[in-house]
Amino acid sequence: MTDRPSALDPDIARRLRRDGAGLFPAIAQQYDTGEVLMLGWMDDEALHRTLTTGRATYWSRSRGEYWVKGDTSGHQQWVRSVALDCDGDALLVRVDQVGPACHTGTHTCFEAGGPLPARVGDRDAGPAAEASR
Amino acid sequence: MTDRPSALDPDIARRLRRDGAGLFPAIAQQYDTGEVLMLGWMDDEALHRTLTTGRATYWSRSRGEYWVKGDTSGHQQWVRSVALDCDGDALLVRVDQVGPACHTGTHTCFEAGGPLPARVGDRDAGPAAEASR
Asked: Which residues does the annotation say bind Mg(2+) (chains A, B) (predicted)?
């Protein structure tokens, strides 16, 4: 927990495991296509706002403030569902993303960064002999 | 960076932004269905092993050791592709998951934790009047 006050339901707050800064990672996924759009960070209050406003809201680590996704860019994330993981330290937020999710203009933040060269594994054959992208 | 040595390609290492413990979050997604399976943590060497062995490999924060997903459970994650996000502080690992991804036995870790009550938002109508699951 941080010293930032939060109206988050105490039953939910009790289940969260936070890092030293009171934050936990939140994965934003497009609800219908399954695309992983971005990873942001939330504290208790960001989660509370995400659960109660219909808009995904993060804590900006760089600016040190709440960040309602799309307030500046117009690229809102409308919340469809929110799930906590088995040990309470990660969140999956399924959203309807308006426009590109990434500030670079790509649809997801993982397109912007690009693929890394990876050796592909196969459940039947094991690791492939050749690295591929 | 931590003091754990790593054989990770320096060109990739240079692009990473790590937390105070030298870690960054890695999202595991089923490559064909798009399901988000879990979120794990990697350091440089875990990423190196993930990129070069065909098996998703994490750093276990609780045990303080590398964790080749499935070595104990048999529920391997065979790597299909790996992407870094726009600012280098999160990873998307698309895998072929054998068996359940979660140690609780559910297919994903986000089923195990269960949905949180969320007000649903709509890009045309705005936030819904009723909270729903």
From this structure: 85, 87, 89
